[in-house]
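We modelled the chain as a single entity of 305 amino acids. Its sequence is:
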Amino acid sequence: MRRKFITAVGVLALSGAALAGCADTASNQGGGSTEEGGSSGAADFPNGPIELVVAWSAGGGTDVMTRAFAQSAEEHLGVPINVVNKPGSSGAVGWGEIAHSTEPDGQTLTIVSPEIGFMEEQGLYDFGLDDFTLITLINQDPAALAVKADAPWDTLEEFLEDARSNPGEISIGNSGPGLAWDLATTAIEMESDTEFTHVPYDGAATAVQAVLGNTLDAMTFSIGEVSAQVEAGEMKVLALAQEDRLDALPDVPTFIEEGYDVDTGTFRGIAGPAGMDPEVVEILNDAFVDMAEEDVFVDVMESNS
């Protein structure tokens, strides 16, 4: 199990690095670019509404961020950007459509995360990184371990001690087998000698409702997925999976400072199907970089981090 986990996280990091490089070298696309620069299609791009596919359910952090992103970006592209949720099979439904059946004309894009870089290797997706054109990195988030505000655990150590005493009895919601937040839960188990019951969800919104409804004990998703509930006093975060504390949550410790080497999270970026025209990629990337300072988008990012 340890080898599989380390391999997956290694690919996750490489996937993040690949997307991060897109902002500087939009025309040098691995797996997803045409070899000859430019085409007549770039001259009139975009020539209609752009569809932006979210492979997760509505209401979660990815969905909220995507809608803010679309609202800001469409002003820079001059066309509507329609967000469409296509959840199912741990992201395979929405991303599979982009990978297998979408024209590479830039009119249909998707929000991607590290899973596109390693799930094929695990036999969970029938597509991989080479089936996409990576365009722009949007953000990076650490994993957060969150519980209901009135849960019996006030500290990470109380939570882990209970888990050690009752193996498998504490349920943790995450994004499904092999996905980023499932791997985060696995990392917690490996570092703390605990065992949890993993419960998959096609988005954080349903996991949040399960925690609030007392049908789920805890959840590991990005901090942005639970920030509204934490601010409202409905949930609390026991620890963050990164090296330093967040300025926005100065009282929340990290796993590392508590003695557990858990430093993991996710990124979100924009991608399209393989074979996109590099000039179209550059048009999109330039627009997305320009809109990164838009108030609508900045406000959402700040309130969800």
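As a brief sanity check on the tokenised model: The mean pLDDT is 84. The chain has ten helices and nine strands.
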